[in-house]
Specification:
Blueprint lengths: L16 H7 L7 H13 L1 H9 L10 E6 L4 E6 L2 E2 L1 H13 L3 E6 L8 E4 H17 L7 E5 L4 H13 L2 E4 L6 H10 L4 E5 L2 E3 L2 E3 L1 H9 L8 E5 L13 E3 H5 L11 E2 L3 E7 L7 E6 H15 L7 E4 L6 H13 L3 E5 L10 H9 L3 E4 L1 H9 L15 E5 L5 H11 L6 E4 L33 E4 L11 E7 L9 E2 L3 H9 L6 E9 L5 E6 L3 E4 L2 E4 H8 L5 E11 L3 E10 L6 H15 L8 E4 L13 H8 L16 H8 L8
The structure holds 5'-O-[(S)-ethoxy(hydroxy)phosphoryl]adenosine.
Length: 660
């Protein structure tokens, strides 16, 4: 074979096309492939990722593959490289798969019409929408907020932003007007894109009304609201500000040149909860995110041409961004988008969809599995699920019982399960089995993907070597889709993720590594709780509860919950004695719904006269967690408490922990 150094037109010149062809099948199919890829990714990370990146179309090759500093932090992948992610999601596929379904949309109502967008349709719709945004004066770098149901137009408009270099900030449509207003203001969004209403299960949600309420809270940055007529029910209208999607988009030209983006230009912001303060806007950039979501999608789901892939997440969360929209479209996949909920009209809805569309890869959250498990396996049986090749789990630890049920009843005891561990901040899946390639073990996320270098550290930040050990999960080396900053507050990014353990990215999770070196995620070690796979900061819930005029102070902790994974337990001190406790609890729930949204409503509210505090005034949450979990083992050392007597009082008034 000719070994002359024919240069790749993509990527850095020293990676030659022949090398790429000889060595590079991005799809890992055997354990040997995995071992080789992993080894290469550690020994020569730049070469490894450059080879993978050269699969894509770059308008200009990058100047350097990786520059990084975990102290500042300053992380740059493929810096100087020019690209547009939508060209790689759409244009690149037109010649080879223009007529293949890109997005398959299953509506909330099972009798309503399924919608299919081929890659060509999607390309044209994205271009039309991009042109309409341009016509509204949206430019590269402007922020656009989304508050939308799971309809294809959400994915289309997200891609339209990326097409013209605008930054999307999708807010889950279950958040309240207050929460939406905070996010709109934090990113100074110029346009909000929403629908009139949202049909979710049997609920009819007035989406536009929530947007109106939010924008009434000093959101002066917003120039326009683009409203999709989805259900057609009447809505209030602010002339000049509000515009109908169909008026703006339908007549636009169906091609639109893609904005030239630097690899490190911002692609999107996604707000997520931390242990303190308000949610922070995690920032992801174009080039690295593209390479990593594609590579991880391909390998974790072993996607093959003509497969139908179904992820049940909402695009309001990172899972929807990376594994409904970007990863699958970059890989030229058919991605199924579902508008509804798993229990509507019956608890067999997921299996109806799998059967109806012959789904090959199915990706959901443990909370959904547990909820469906509790309703009985009769809802699963009778469906033809033989198309399934891979089952996925994400968002929280999956307990052994749920894992087994998923495996036995959905996977017929044979379909591999990928327990995928990752975070909003990681952009993509970092630790997961690769189906039929690497081992799987119930409750274990198992092994890092190539390019990922996890480690466990003790509380002093020293690495814990060897196997059969437990510690705090950190990453020693950057991967292409690691967060770059938190929007408008780089210092917060530094202190949250990079200052705890020097030279490492700290995940906030505790993990164990078993005798075989497989990772099991134990859960958050900070004040973040994971309720039905949704990340909620205890401080946020406390701040919301404290908005009730009678509340003096509150403390919120998580406790084990059979369906939700964790439930929210709130201890509340009131100003006056509460006469009608039931009415008071209802008011607290209302206040939390108003401040954050229904997902943050406490499951248990216990009225207390004090909270266990140290002499420096810090609440001893360890004790509160124990009481909330009905953990009867001792309370440990309470000698540093200012008010040790309060512990018995709280214990005596504790509520049964397992109610839903
Ligand atoms: C948790 C979701 C155990 C973890 C993609 C992490 C998991 C947080 C798993 C991130 C898993 C996610 N096993 N725990 N497979 N996947 N988590 O940002 O605590 O919404 O830190 O991203 O969810 O939640 P986030």
């Amino acid at each position: 074979m000719d070994s002359s150094p024919v240069k790749s037109t993509f990527g850095k010149a020293e990676y030659r096309v022949q090398d790429k062809l000889k060595t590079m099948n991005p799809l890992i199919q055997t354990r040997a492939d995995y071992d080789l890829a992993y080894q290469k990714s550690v020994e020569d990370p730049e070469g490894f990722w450059a080879e993978l990146a050269s699969t894509f179309e770059w308008k200009k090759p990058w100047d350097s593959v990786l520059k990084w500093d975990f102290i500042k932090p300053d992380i740059q992948w493929f810096a100087g490289g020019k690209l547009n992610i939508t060209e790689n999601c759409l244009d690149r596929h037109l010649a080879t798969r223009g007529d293949q379904t890109a997005i398959l949309w299953e509506p909330n109502d099972p009798n309503a019409e399924v919608r299919r967008y081929t890659y060509r349709d999607l390309y044209h719709e994205v271009c039309k929408t991009a042109n309409s945004l341009k016509a509204l004066g949206v430019k590269k770098g402007d922020r656009i907020c989304f508050y939308m149901p799971m309809v294809p137009e959400l994915a289309i408009a997200v891609l339209a932003c990326a097409r013209i270099g605008a930054v999307h900030s999708v807010v889950f449509a279950g958040f309240s007007a207050n929460a939406l207003a905070d996010r709109v203001k934090d990113a100074a969004c110029k346009v909000v894109i929403c629908s009139d209403y949202n049909d979710r299960g049997s609920k009819h949600i007035p989406v536009k009304e929530v947007v109106d309420q939010a924008l009434a809270m000093d959101c002066d940055c917003v120039e326009h609201v683009l409203v999709l007529k989805h259900t057609g029910d009447p809505v209030q209208w602010t002339e000049g500000r509000d515009l109908w999607w169909h008026d703006q988009v339908d007549h636009q030209p169906d091609t639109c040149p893609a904005e030239v983006m630097d690899s490190e230009d911002m692609l999107f912001i996604l707000y997520t909860s931390g242990s303190t303060g308000k949610p922070k806007g995690v920032v992801h950039t174009c080039g690295g995110y593209m390479v990593f979501t594609w590579y991880s999608f391909l390998n974790v789901f072993q996607y093959q041409d003509n497969d139908v892939y179904f992820c049940t997440a909402d695009i309001g969360w990172i899972t929807g961004h990376s594994y409904i929209v970007y990863g699958p479209l970059l890989a030229g996949a058919t991605t199924l988008m579902f508008e509804g909920v798993p229990t509507y009209p019956t608890p067999s809805r997921f299996w109806d969809i799998v059967d109806k569309h012959k789904v090959n890869q199915f990706y959901t959250a443990p909370t959904a599995i547990r909820a469906l498990m509790a309703m009985g396996e009769e809802w699963v049986t009778g469906h033809d699920l033989s198309s399934l090749k891979v089952l996925g789990s994400v968002g929280e630890p999956i307990n052994e019982e749920a894992w087994k049920w998923y495996h036995d009843h959905v996977g017929r005891g044979t379909v591999p399960i990928v327990d995928t561990w990752w975070q909003t901040e990681t952009g993509g899946i970092l630790i997961s089995p690769l189906p039929n390639v690497t081992p799987m073990k119930p409750c274990y996320a198992t092994l890092p993907l190539p390019g990922i270098q996890p480690c466990l550290v003790n509380s002093s930040g020293e690495e814990i070597e060897g196997n059969d050990v437990e510690g705090l999960l950190c990453m020693k080396f950057p991967w292409p889709s690691i967060l770059r900053t938190t929007y408008g507050d780089h210092e917060r990014c530094r202190t949250t993720y990079f200052s705890m353990y020097k030279g490492m990215y700290f995940t906030g999770d505790g993990a164990r590594r078993d005798a075989d070196g497989l990772y099991r995620i134990i859960g958050r070690v900070d004040d973040v709780i994971n309720v039905s796979g949704h990340r909620i900061g205890t401080a946020e819930v406390e701040n919301a509860i404290n908005c009730h005029p009678d509340v003096v102070e509150s403390a919120v902790v998580g406790y084990p919950h059979p369906i939700k994974g964790q439930g929210i337990y709130a201890y509340v001190i009131t100003q006056h004695e509460v006469k009608d406790e039931a009415a008071f609890r209802k008011e607290v729930l209302q206040v939390v719904t108003k401040e954050i949204g229904p997902i943050a409503k406490p499951d248990q509210i216990q009225l207390v006269t004090g909270l266990p505090k140290t002499r420096s005034g810090k609440i001893m949450r360890r004790i509160l967690r124990k009481i909330a979990s009905a953990d009867t083992s001792g309370m440990g050392d309470t000698s540093t408490l200012l008010n040790p007597e309060i512990v018995d009082e709280i214990k005596a008034g504790a509520l049964a922990p397992t109610k839903s």
